[in-house]
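## tool: complex_structure
## caller: assistant
## args:
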Amino acid sequence: MTNEVIDREAAAERLLSRSVAEVIVRDDLKKKLLGPRPLRIKLGVDPTRPDIHLGHLVCFRKLREFQALGHKVVVIIGDWTARIGDPSGRSVQRQMMTAEEVEHNAQTYLDQFFKVVDTAQAEIFKQSTWFEDFSLTDVISLTSKYTVARMLEREDFAIRYSQGSPIAITELLYPLLQAYDSVAIKADVEIGGTDQTFNLLVGRDIQRDFGLEPQNILTLPILVGTDGVQKMSKSLDNYIGVNESPNEMYGKLMSIPDSAIGDYFRLLTDVPLEEIDQMLAAAAAGEVNPRDLKDRLAVQIVTGLHDAGAAEEARNEFDRVFRQHALPDDIEEVDVARETPLISLLVETGLARSRNDARQLINGGGVRLDGEKLIDPEASVVLTEAAVLQAGKRRWRRLIPRD
Amino acid sequence: MTNEVIDREAAAERLLSRSVAEVIVRDDLKKKLLGPRPLRIKLGVDPTRPDIHLGHLVCFRKLREFQALGHKVVVIIGDWTARIGDPSGRSVQRQMMTAEEVEHNAQTYLDQFFKVVDTAQAEIFKQSTWFEDFSLTDVISLTSKYTVARMLEREDFAIRYSQGSPIAITELLYPLLQAYDSVAIKADVEIGGTDQTFNLLVGRDIQRDFGLEPQNILTLPILVGTDGVQKMSKSLDNYIGVNESPNEMYGKLMSIPDSAIGDYFRLLTDVPLEEIDQMLAAAAAGEVNPRDLKDRLAVQIVTGLHDAGAAEEARNEFDRVFRQHALPDDIEEVDVARETPLISLLVETGLARSRNDARQLINGGGVRLDGEKLIDPEASVVLTEAAVLQAGKRRWRRLIPRD
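## result:
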């Protein structure tokens, strides 16, 4: 074998193994990965949630591996399935997003997406391309191919049905419509989180019913958030956004619990698995400070999403602020009255979300004025010149007294 | 009150009581029946089954009662729901009938329908009027209004689901589509057999969801067939077709079991209920021959669907053949060989469906040649001149020997 053949074989093996939860059907997919025909790798995107975080990056990185082997990424903007909602069922039959909203959200998503994925090897479709003119005949044809019982086997449906929680008939359409996308674009592979396995399997069934070869499926593990416990998600506020500044990104990555370091390295970097195991072993033996591992992780990720210079600056800034307890360079300035009750001041300047929040910050010892801790929630602040008000570890305002 | 008011009140009361299984909501419907606004009374028709029998007549007669009170009948030709099939589920996603087939079957149905119902107070719609351009948006809107659990409460679905028999998702659309018909035509009332109650109730729900006042519902009892046991149906061959000849109709009505006489009078004639009770009591006491009651019944029904003269002739013909054992006038002639094995002869002439059937007829003593019973299944028939071959009580062929 030539070196190139050996390399491709190794790349395919890595694609199918690293950061992968399940592959259906592995042998078939491996053969096709190495075959001459460029495969069409489908990714469905919910345009109601255009904010991308590192959890999505796991998927984007995998798509890039497909592209490295010469395959094509096909993005589906789910402007129709977004109307139904999946899988919570809390808001069945949402309003149709306007074309402008879809366009805007899709563009926001894709701007972030193409930081990782090669735009030259990608196609983008909106579902409206085929669902705009989907007739009742088409619906009858599609729904005739699947039974109620099989659909209710989906775990969340099964739980809700057994608990007597309502499932609108529309919701049974969701997996069928997204499955039809695989027919429309002739997907060879569909990729998604482990929570999507059922839907991706419906895609296989429906493609077969429409006389196509069923797509292979590759599911990816779910990344935990910065809390190290729950799935990374915007609504849990434990996420790191792809669009965040180098400083924010670096700082948040330095804040993850040690237990998450391994997963973040495996899912978000190219560091070889053996090397990751060695690092973790060294940290466990007390030979390495976990903080140094997180620094390496953070530099790699910030470099990937911004650049090496930005990563270096973010590290320096972080060191200056946290190791040397210095102030950051770019503190926001706010005009304030010369005398203000402390609680009001915290709320006004946006350092506290509410008066209650302000009170808790003060009682928790998290409020400082020019480095001096303020502990009386009933105090007023009297300023004769500019001063820095700090709330918690990483938030400041430079107060400018006005007349 | 004037006489007219009293008459209308009595007619409404009769409409809501006689030959009625259930009325939802009775008080509301009665008020509207007597109100000034002409109501729209919906009847859904399956164009795959255009053959009408006396079972349908129960419904048509009830529609005529609505018309007598000034209300309008709205017939829906179910050319779209016919594609899905309800409720057996044996043949999900049938082919769409061609426009010609729908037209032909609908016309066949309506020709029979308008023997009873007043065409001047009726409107006819095909579902394609609104489903031809039904979009995926419309489907999503419609299916979002109903839950899977409520749909699976329908008795046949519940049974099939609990037995593990497949229910295609399409089948859940059936009740919703026919319910949408009630929205499209703004039905005030829907009428149907007791087996349609669930579907008619879905109509109420969906109308409400679309901001309309929910239709009232009137269900009718199911007529037993000439066997006196099972629902009258073409497939069970226990039916009397509306298009049958006066002789056939009269003869079949004379053949119903005595136990069915009461129901047939109540559901298919205007004879007052008290009078029917008196007749049945007299028959039970042995004071009246049930045969005479059936004659009255048969004459009334044949008169209604043909005319009094035809009924009189049918009665005379029946008497001649059955009471006096004479032959009917119109025996079909068949050319046959001069010598034929009896079994072949029965099959050839169409008197038996198969050789097995022929053998059973002979063994059962049901085969006669010119009135003489033939009991040997292995016999051959040798003819020198025309002769009448009889199978069972009411089927004959005049055999014409040919060279």
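## assistant note: DSSP finds 18 helices and 13 strands in chain B. The interface with chain A takes residues 80, 83-84, 92-93, 96, 131, 134-141, 143-149, 151-152, 161, 164, 166-173, 176 of chain B (CB under 8 Å). Handing back to user.
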